[in-house]
Amino acid sequence: MSPSALTIRFTRTSPTRHRVEFLRADGTREEADLETRSLLLHDFVHFAIETEGRIRDGFYGRIARGIRAADLAHPQQIPGRDDELMATERVVGPLQTAWRRGANPDAFVAKVRDHLESVGAAVPTWLEADLVRRAMATITRLDGQWRATPFGAAMELAFAAAPAPA
Predict the structure, then answer these.
(1) I need a labelling partner for 146 at 20 to 30 A (CA). Which of 14, 42, 122, 131 fits?
(2) What is the DSSP string of 69-138?
């Protein structure tokens, strides 16, 4: 395991709740009990975009480096919010809806680019249709894996974050 690797464990605790645990390579860990309906897909989309896009300073990269999840709960309130975390968040939200609707990745990228430009936000250099295609396939795989996870059991993901930005 690399020094910045992270194991993410999602445990089904009830039909409406799950527990997420973050196990860092340095041995530290944290966990939270969360509402599944609105939060689980969001977490899966972050994982898909950040792993497929090799994003090192998004949500999971920062968790891997020891930043507490609670400190990242409202990225719009974090200083320097035009960084990679905020750029990722600007894509993750719309991608949740696009994935549910089976959107075309090319059309999705064009729409998000147009929106970001219209509000004066930077368009992430990594926002490409091929990345969105791969991320959507990953989200579909994770969704299927979750649906097959029995209550009381855990679904475990490995996130290999890159080193912290200089």
Answers:
(1) 131
(2) GGGGS-GGGSSSTTSHHHHHHHHHHHHHHHHHHT--HHHHHHHHHHHHHHTTPPPPTT--HHHHHHHHHH
